[in-house]
Write a structure and sequence with these properties.
By secondary structure, this protein is an all-alpha fold. It contains 6 helices and no strands. The longest helix is centred in the last third of the chain and has 22 residues.
Length: 132
Amino acid sequence: MDTHQRVITWRSTLAEAEQASRQGEAAKSERLYKEALTLAEQAGGLNDQELVTSLIHLADFYFASKSYDRAEPLYRRALEIYERIFGVENFISAICMGSLGDVLAAQGKSSEAADVKRRSREVLILLQRVRA
């Protein structure tokens, strides 16, 4: 399968996962989110955006399902990619930090959650000042 076909398959799989999630089909949704992640990981030709999008979708699914221990490593991996691509002081990195902070808080990791959320707020405030 060439890169173009992989991207089409990845997009289709992700769309199916989102539809299954909206319809309350949790098992199907999880399977498809995992499949989309696998497609993104296996396809060296796909860019980091497909990979990080897959990570975030699966992490959000686990967060909504209260499977916080499964969501945390996915958010961490996504944040590493965002920070590598965009830097730490970037809106999308800050939003991902906030999501990681939420999952840490839900797990009772209060101190680490507070640190991550503080970093997220600091970046968002800095970006707001720069734009003002």
